[in-house]
Description:
Layout: H1 2-23, H2 32-53, H3 63-83, H4 91-102, H5 106-147, H6 156-164, H7 167-181, H8 188-210, H9 221-245, H10 250-260, H11 267-275, H12 279-307
Amino acid sequence: MTTILGALLPIFAVIGVGWGLRRSNLMPAEMWPAISRLAYVGLSPALLFSVISRADFDSITLAPAVLAAVLGFISMGLLVIALKPLIKTDGPAFTSVFQGSVRWNGLVILALATLSYGLDGEVLVSLIMVATIPIVNVMAVTVLTVWGAHEKTPDIRAVLWRIISNPLILGCIAGGIANLLGLFQTGPIADVLALMGRAALPLILLAVGAGLDFTALNARRGLLALTALNKLIIAPLIFGAIAWALGVRGEAFAIVVLVGASPGAASAYVLAQQLGGDRRLSAGDVTATTLLSFITLPVAVWIATQVG
Length: 308
């Protein structure tokens, strides 16, 4: 637990700095969307390309851990759908409970895995991202289409195209092709991409802090509590059980549990805004799970380390 706490402290410190910069107006609120977009569209794909293109896959057993994460997200989605008759709320709020229970902040977990487990952790989380981001987004779009509030028919094709053209996925795919062909692993282009990638995680963490909305914690506290329970307690248990059943052990087991225990992602708010979800509840989900994960993440990983 000491190792994971040591890795969490700088991550949450940078998140706190981002919140302080926005609150103090040293960097006005209107600047943060551009910063987030730069980190997400420009720098994060370079980071993922750099990591995957130079990874030694021969020394890493990846498939069972990636499969466990995929099945974990699908299982969480099915669980929340099964619980819908028991969740007494309107359709848009249910979609935000679904997103809050299923979505994960891959870049925060990538930073944590890198600090805690080095290159192997960085590679594994990167591959889990490329395998699960499309699945999670398709599930979220489907739920929002069925239960969201729509004044007009959602442009599903545009949303699906956004999923297919996701910069993180494209960065991972390009990195995999470069790895397979032995391209851009050294030399000026590799150095430029590595340098860009090193700037991605700090900016992402600052943007996460700037996006925290404490006023949204007052929105539907019962649903917020349910979402936090699903995301931070139930999900890591399910991910861990699936990983164990698939024979995943050691650091890979801990990383799968770490992925399951991830806080929510701000993209839930964006999709709720586009497809008729409860935006305020989604903002509260992200804020609550981000804050609580400082406690739950080290506990989850410590238990995973003892078990796996």
